[in-house]
Amino acid sequence: MKIIPSQIPIITGDGCPARISAIADAIYAIGGKWKLPIVLALAGGNQRFNDLHRLVQGISPKVLSSELKELELNGLIERKVSMAGTQMMVDYELTEYCVTLHKVLDALSEWGMMHKEKIKQGFREKRQEAATNN
């Protein structure tokens, strides 16, 4: 199948470098192994650091701390400090801005399911081809 540039409008025209930069910024903000699992863990409500560490299985405390800082810098989560008597409590919660990810995540999920099926279909076809050639 030959791709016609107009089929992928984001890579044509004068706005191309700005659009590519915007996509790179978006991928930086939510990309990586841990950012989306952290956001999903917070979707159920506020969590403390140890709760997040337990909910996001496999993440080290050092990486969790780093990812939380990046998510906070990108305005997707908020770190709330409160006092309970003499004890300091730190909770993390999603910001209203994080809700803007909803459509993006829906689109990524849809594309991801389609892509996974395409890859699986390709493997099935190669297996069938190998079986008929033997």
TrEMBL record:
Keyword presence, DNA-binding: yes
Lineage start: Bacteria, Pseudomonadati, Bacteroidota, Chitinophagia, Chitinophagales
This protein's UniProt keywords: DNA-binding, Transcription, Transcription regulation
Location of the HTH hxlR-type domain: 16-120
SUPFAM superfamilies: Winged helix' DNA-binding domain
Superkingdom classification of source: Bacteria
InterPro entries: HTH_HxlR, WH-like_DNA-bd_sf, WH_DNA-bd_sf
GO molecular function terms attached to this record: DNA binding
Organism expressing this protein natively: Chitinophaga tropicalis
Entry protein name: Transcriptional regulator
